Prior knowledge:
Blueprint: E1 9-13, H1 26-36, E2 41-45, H2 47-50, H3 53-56, E3 66-69, E4 72-75, H4 77-87, H5 96-126, H6 133-155, H7 167-176, H8 189-199, H9 202-212
Parallel strand pairs: 1-2
Antiparallel strand pairs: 1-3, 3-4
Helix pairs in contact: 1-4, 1-7, 1-9, 5-6, 5-7
Amino acid sequence: MKNNNSIPTITAFKSSPDRGRGLARDFRVRWALEEVGQSYNVQLETFEELKKPPYLALQPFGQIPAYKENDLVLFESGAIIFHIAEKHSGLLPAEENARARAIAWMFCALNTVEMPVVEFSTFFFFEKDKSWYNDRLPLAEERIHSMLKKLSTQLGSSDWLEGDFSAGDLLMVTVLRRLESSGVLKSYQNICGYIFRAEARPAYQRAFAAQLAV
């Protein structure tokens, strides 16, 4: 794996809508960089600046984060973390098949799991005052529990999804944490323990403190 001394820059909200709770997607990248021991700079952006041409040249959809490293510019947190994991040791297994499975968990977190999590979170937190909320709640809960039961079964009693901690776990935990306030995770003690182990990692703690300090 290649490694050099260039210091990347990531973008983050100047005033984060999550109030520093580690839910904004720049946190994922901060955590990955902390895991591999790579220092980084942070370029803070206002919501107004995200809509302007200079920022859209970095992130065409006006979202956080963007990543700059020498002449490389990346967007999408999953792609950024994959780049970091490819460049540094510590986030993907060395063995070929285990590495491929860890990468599969990265895709699973962002495709299979994140979509229903975001849908449920949006429904649970922002539609409670709607006339249809109580009628639709059972279906929303059924969908999220269907996914969580499968994930819980796959995790079983293991500490991590694929051997040692990997980028797949990093992304999965950042996705699952969006459900913590809803209470739906309480039915899955192994998933709660999984999140707790991830949150106890020193790299997680450093990344969380850095985002909270903004």
